[in-house]
Amino acid sequence: MSVGRFAPLLAFRHSLPMSAIDTLFAELRQTGRKALMPFVTAGDPDLEFTAQVLRQLVARGCHLCEVGIPYSDPIADGPVIQASYTRALDQGIKLQDILEMLGRLTGELTAPMVTMVSYSIVYRRGLERFVTEAKAAGAAGAIVPDLLIEEAGPLAEICRRHDFSLIQLVTPTTPRSRAQRIAAQTTGFIYYVSVTGITGERDRLPQQVVDNVGWLRGQTDLPICVGFGVSRPEHVRMLAPVADGLIVGSAIVRRMAEAANRPRHQVLEEVGRFVTQLFDALENP
Amino acid sequence: MRALSQLPDAAGRFGPFGGRYVPETLTQALDQLAEEYEKARADPGFHGELERLLRHYVGRPSPLYCAERLSAECGGSRILLKREDLNHTGAHKINNTLGQGLLALRMGKRRVIAETGAGQHGVATATACARFGLDCVIYMGEEDIRRQRPNVFSMKLLGAEVRPVSSGARTLRDAINEALRDWMASVESTHYILGSVVGPSPFPRIVRDFQSVIGRETRGQCLEQLGRLPDTVVACVGGGSNAAGMFYPFIEDKEVRLVGVEAGGRSQAIGDHAAPLAFGRPGVLHGSFSYVMQDEDGQTCPVHSVSAGLDYPGVGPEHSYWKQTGRVEYTCATDGQALAAFDTLARTEGIIPALESAHAVAIAIELARDGNPEEAIVVCLSGRGDKDAAEVARLRGESI
What we know:
The structure holds 2 protein chains of 2 kinds. Chain A is an alpha/beta fold. Chain A contains 13 helices and 9 strands.
């Protein structure tokens, strides 16, 4: 079998976007728009509600949803997401159930899904098996918040083969030379962490975020999305000019947690209203 | 393949184990720590300062004591106790906290955080911080606060703030999670003094090196007292710091049998013990790849031990490699065996051991019964048992 036979095919593949995430950002860039990317915990209080929330978020125009796979020891997460993970795990939720729920939504949801998942879970599943199963369930990529570029080689190679994005994080403590190396090894988008700390709502975000993201913008063509602490319309206004997308986690998870003790349609409506407020800020800076 | 004494490699690996699985936010601080540690290692001033502190402040070298009445009761081999319980603060933990405290000073970090299970590492950290004039916050699970009250009061006396952790099982694992979360936000001004040979690189190596004073002294004391190396060395393994410090200087002495003792708890059922080397699988927890008690999804399992210091679902990556290579044998002592050894040592030698160390004593007693009188078994008596008196009384239904 000669390499030459495949060369044109490979060239063709590289000229195309690699995953649904690349397609999404290419389209948004063409029309000068920014992405709103909510994070939801899978299975809090149950997967049926998670599916309802995902439908609601996409119906309200969200461009991409991050699905948090609950983990027993999430060290990058603040109290709101931690507690949601604990509640989901206390219900006995399994990775298999989450993937099946996502699989049922595939085709129905127009926005790509990305899993936020600890390496412990990926490793236990088996790297190749995790990527294949997540992709089969409709996920376009994964964020593995405790997998540094030094340790990411084997998973990154598998993700490349499956056109599955492996999104890496850059933080305020990342030296610039390292940020360049991270950018070179990321696919999909770069997740810029706005604060030195754990996830959770903040009153204010540090002004350096704007400068840091501005600098990073000059180093890579990849979309840059900002998360951690983003929880208010004023944050969205502050960051929309420099970022390609904004990630909102705890502010949504906290509202979803209400589903345990209030009528679900009310909670859904509230989550929807909150997202619409953020969209107003995104589109009318 | 590298000699065991030459590990970890540049990536912080012991064979396949170890590495660094943490959020990007912590990378810079871990690199800084690794770099500062290399500089300190090459600095005779650093070694001189640490040695002075260990000698005049901790009271090192700690004795190697021949437990004659205990040995006679076993009727077999001779048992020798490495008396880490006689250190200032009553356990081996101070060897590490003084070393890391000096590193914090070198890095210009004025605030220190730490986790604690039994409270021994918390007390040792609070002590080092008081000695060096550093601010100190200790994370401790609520369940451990309940069973180790005396240590909680000591930490406060020493000027530390003790922050109760109410997540999860409210024990050591949850305290480490909270300390890491604090560090995520405070990493630029704060040093995290991790108390065991666990966590992301370079912690397992740094803690092992600071604890290796135990094994180095023991080796010299055996040559002096016995005229030879011991036949067997026994130490308890939670995260595994006293065992790593005891075993490492013997690791190339192939004729010395090394035995690590995990917490066998109430039974072999999941959730009833804390013995990942015996019953767990390799996986990722708290920043490193090592044996861990996990379910089929990679979620950490609950564990149990009567001893708060061993009540941990993971273990240091170097122990995983020592298990894989067969250099160290790992076994378990149950809650009941540990409590019996706690009594036996108190009664025969007038030494009340920590419940952690009592696990090692229990296995040493078993080995001594089967051994011959020519054989010498050294046990790392990693801490004293004053902190456990109230909990042991409670378990027996006695009020004190």
